[in-house]
Amino acid sequence: MSPRHILKRYVGSRESLSESRAAGRLGKRLHNADIWHPGRRSVAGGVSLGFFLAFIPLPVQMLIAAPLALLFRVNLPVALIAVWITNPITIAPLFIFAFKIGSWISGRDSENSPLTFEPSFDAIATTFGEIWLPLWIGCLVCGSAAAIVGNVAVRLLWRANLFYRRRQRRKKKLNPQ
């Protein structure tokens, strides 16, 4: 089964989503075929957008992904699904990793200054003041790297699937049973 058929099976139709109440003002733009076409470029773009936004430390990643998918004309459902690589289970390890990368890039050694947590607003504000720059730098770097790796991986896997299916058709043509 091709990636296109898999995507069509699990994603709702364009018409049902564009007529929903949640579509709001975007209803007319949701009729654009580019954002629904399950092609190699649009799916790879959706994965890139979703992976990049997944590393942005904001709780509204899906709300940001939808208009950007429309703007960049990448596959909307794939972008919304790809954002979920940061979910309640993976968010802490991914952001800790991003913080470590950002600390290394910005030259702030996080090993020498252990962060302590006190349940007060002043302590949280002080801690955030110490970690925001390395966290944002790390998130941008990790998000960009994940977007590039995701895009290349989708394109390579898609191409490998095409070659595999072509080889299967040739075998079937040469050995009809």
- How widely separated are the two ends? 21 Å
Low-pLDDT runs of 5+ residues are none
Number of strands: 0
Largest sheet: none
- Considering DSSP H and I runs of 4 or more, what fraction of the residues is helical? 55-70%
**Radius of gyration, taken over Cα atoms and rounded to an integer in Å:** 21 Å
Q: Tally the helices: what do you get?
A: 7
H/E element string?
Answer: HHHHHHH
What is the residue-averaged pLDDT? 84
Total number of domains = 1
What report would you give on this structure?
The chain has helices at residues 3-10, 14-18, 40-54, 61-72, 76-82, 91-106, 121-174. The chain has seven helices and no strands. The chain has one domain (3-174). With 177 residues, the chain is mostly helical.
List the helices and strands and how they pair.
Blueprint lengths: L2 H8 L3 H5 L21 H15 L6 H12 L3 H7 L8 H16 L14 H54 L3
Helix pairs in contact: 3-4, 3-5, 3-7, 6-7
What is this structure, in a nutshell?
With 177 residues, the chain is mainly alpha-helical.
Notable characteristics:
177 residues
